[in-house]
Design brief:
single chain; alpha/beta; Rossmann fold; GMP Synthetase, Chain A, domain 3; 2 domains; 5-stranded parallel sheet; 4-stranded mixed sheet; 9 strands; binds xanthosine-5'-monophosphate; nucleotide-binding; glutamine amidotransferase; GMP synthase [glutamine-hydrolyzing]
């Protein structure tokens, strides 16, 4: 029976053996997995690791700042922070197809990452926070024979193109074990306990065209929702909770005026690995409070709905 301390020590040895005196590059997404992988690898090989944060502007409110302060402030791990919001938003202009949005983001991420990897002087290894469910889900999914439900966002293809080998120290772990390892490595609770966030970010929570304005609207609604969830003490009981901004406008009334604004959807699920999920059963009074706050405080939204779909048949994200 392994303790996390033993697992950590064994992995550190394994990483040192695999990497030797080679150079490793690691992409940070803002999520728990890549952060834990990076901190673990940094403990193993120190300065041989370069972390790159491709900031596509599709993060949640405050998230990019948290990544930067965790790495530069808390750990003093060197971090290349690339602010490439304009590149991503320009490329997403006019695109409404979910798979094309995912593919564009994945491809652009790799392009940006490759340029940085070359600047480092050519890394020998690419580190990734791949988890056990990621390994499984890319093989088979909801029982269907190799049907692609969604193109997952990762840096696949890059290792061959740049002749890099993969370092994936979390491959045997489930999410709760990654969190335990993160605590063992001293990551702050706000980071370790954070809900999973998909690589393509808010782009797949904005069905239809993604614009800076719609990202900003969604960030505000999402932050209110999460703040209420934290205040109610429910955050840790939920696997993922987030808002989506729908490409639908409806009529409302505010004061004595007519409004014609977007609909916001709220999603919250429980799960152990993201492969199946159940809807989180909030009290009606909680949802009413959140809906009232969002409509009152977020310009551009005048109606809020709750998503009651389990996975399967729904997926967790809307695209
Ligand atoms: P779905 O929406 O397929 O998502 O039920 C299952 C879990 O995976 C996350 N997700 C992603 N994570 N890259 C990621 O790293 C992606 O492209 C991606 N798409 C979905 C999702 O948030 C959920 O936790």
């Amino acid at each position: 029976d392994w303790t996390m301390a033993e697992f950590k020590a064994a992995k550190i040895n394994e990483i040192r053996e695999q990497v030797g005196d080679g150079k490793v590059i690691c992409g940070l997404s803002g999520g728990v997995d890549s952060a834990v992988a990076a901190v673990l690898i940094h403990e193993a090989i120190g300065e041989q690791l370069t972390c790159v944060f491709v900031d596509h502007g599709l993060m949640r409110q405050g998230e990019a700042d948290q990544v930067v302060s965790l790495f530069k402030g808390h750990y003093n791990i060197p971090l290349v922070h690339l602010d490439v919001e304009t590149l991503f938003l320009n490329g997403l202009k006019g695109e409404t197809d979910p798979e094309k949005k995912r593919k564009f983001i994945g491809k652009t991420f790799i392009d940006v990452f490759e340029i940085e990897a070359k600047k480092v002087g050519g890394a020998d290894f690419l580190a990734q926070g791949t988890l056990y469910p990621d390994v499984i889900e890319s093989v088979s999914f909801t029982g269907g024979p190799s049907v692609t439900i969604k193109s997952h966002h990762n840096v696949g293809g890059l290792p061959e193109r740049m002749n890099m080998k993969l370092v994936e120290p979390l491959r045997e772990l489930f999410k709760d074990e990654v969190r335990a390892l993160g605590r063992e490595l001293g990551l702050p609770e706000i980071f370790v306990g954070r809900h999973p966030f998909p690589g393509p970010g808010l782009a797949i929570r904005i069905p239809g065209e993604v614009t800076k304005e719609r990202c900003d609207i969604l960030r505000k609604a999402d932050a209110i929702y999460l703040e209420e969830i934290r205040n109610a003490g429910l955050y840790d009981a939920i696997w993922q909770a987030f808002a989506v901004l729908l490409p639908v406008k409806t009529v409302g009334v505010m004061g004595d005026g007519r409004t014609y604004d977007s609909v916001c959807g709220l999603r919250a699920v429980t799960s152990t690995d993201g492969m199946t999920a159940d809807v989180y059963p909030f009290d009606a009074s909680f949802l009413t409070r959140v809906a009232t706050r969002i409509v009152n405080e977020v310009k551009g939204i005048n109606r809020v709905v709750y998503d009651y779909t389990s996975k399967p048949p729904g997926t967790i994200e809307w695209e």
